[in-house]
Specification:
By secondary structure, the protein is of the alpha/beta class. Helices cover 47% and strands 15% of the residues. The chain is built from 15 helices and nine strands.
Length: 335
């Protein structure tokens, strides 16, 4: 099974947000060294926890520091932007890392309404043009002409589709699954965002409705899960408290950086909070390599997946890197 990583450049209490960006670069090198197939970065705006607001810039830095791993966006929130400009950015990225670029796109704003309007004054109606934007984006990234316009730099003559950035559809609902199927694109379901809700239906629709494309004659689905692995279950559960607390705080409108697990353990949770956390914890993957590995193998088999994308949050960078390392060893990550 191929193993890939999604990093969101999460800010941590007591550290500047710039630290999160540099940590993303370091993690990409770490994941490449341990056999991960892809390394994706996300786009969020106006959120003081997830501070990766410009995936295309992060991707350029990662591409310059790596040599094998695929580098991608998960994703570019396309309704904020001109499809031509995004195509140009990713054609430049392909020139920096030929044949290693993934272009994951999403329709959701990745922000609140006010921030979305600041990014695009026509945000309210922009999502309606998303299918057309994706098709234009596909054509431009392949070096094709749309409306008499080229996206530069163009790919080398005869380089073929494998040289073009690979467009992925990202989603957490049936809409993205159906659009990906219609356009013959790979599809990634945000399992971690939805706590697994709706994954079977979305993947089922994707496979049922899939129309073969020249680059992808067969459906190519994956999911992104949240996982944290440590040498003991207790250690993993302790470090996972940071995300637990953040999820609760966010639902209450309290936004901020990730808090350290020692502080959270000391304060504890109320009975109501524990009840609220229970379903989320059932859909996360926390524990020893053997425990989490078995869970992920079972999930991949159930959903008939050949690749999983893993997202891990932890305040301690060494804990996070160790989690990716242990998981790669357990699952025999192979690029």
């Amino acid at each position: 099974m191929k193993l890939s990583a999604l990093d969101q450049s999460v800010s941590v209490a007591g550290r500047g947000q710039d630290h999160a960006i540099r940590d993303t670069l370091d993690l990409a090198l770490h994941c490449e060294a341990h056999g991960y197939h892809r390394f994706w970065v996300s786009e969020h705006h106006g959120l003081p926890t997830i501070v990766g607001s410009a995936p295309e810039i992060l991707m350029a830095a990662i591409a310059a520091r790596t040599s094998r791993i695929r580098v991608g966006s998960a994703g570019v929130m396309l309704p904020h932007y001109s499809a031509l400009k995004v195509a140009e950015q990713f054609r430049v990225l392909d020139a920096l890392a030929p044949g290693r670029i993934d272009l994951g796109v999403g329709r959701a704003p990745g922000s609140d309404g006010r921030t979305a309007r600041a990014l695009n004054p026509n945000a309210a109606s922009a999502a309606d043009a998303f299918p057309q934007q994706v098709q234009e984006l596909q054509a431009w990234t392949r070096g094709q002409v749309v409306g008499g316009i080229h996206a530069h730099p163009e790919p080398p003559p005869g380089s073929g589709l494998e040289r073009a950035p690979e467009v992925w559809m990202l989603g957490s609902s049936d809409y993205g699954a159906q659009l990906a199927a219609y356009l013959g694109l790979p599809y990634a379901f945000a399992y971690f965002f939805m706590d697994g809700q709706g994954v079977e239906q979305a993947l089922g629709l994707y496979r049922e409705l899939y129309r073969p494309s020249d680059r992808h004659p067969k459906p190519h689905p994956t999911i992104c899960v949240w996982a944290l692995v440590a040498e003991t279950d207790e250690a993993a559960q302790h470090h996972a408290l940071s995300r637990d607390r953040w999820r609760l705080d966010r639902q209450m409108g309290r936004l901020g950086p990730l808090r350290w697990p020692d502080e959270i353990a000391s304060a504890g949770f109320t009975e109501a909070e524990l009840a609220h956390l229970a379903p989320m914890r059932r859909k996360a993957f926390v524990g020893t390599p053997a425990r989490v590995g078995a869970q992920l193998r079972a999930l991949a088999a159930e959903l008939q997946l050949e690749e999983l994308v893993v997202n891990t949050w932890a305040c301690d960078v060494d804990v996070r890197r160790r989690s990716y390392e242990l998981l790669a060893r357990e699952l025999g990550a192979s690029a």
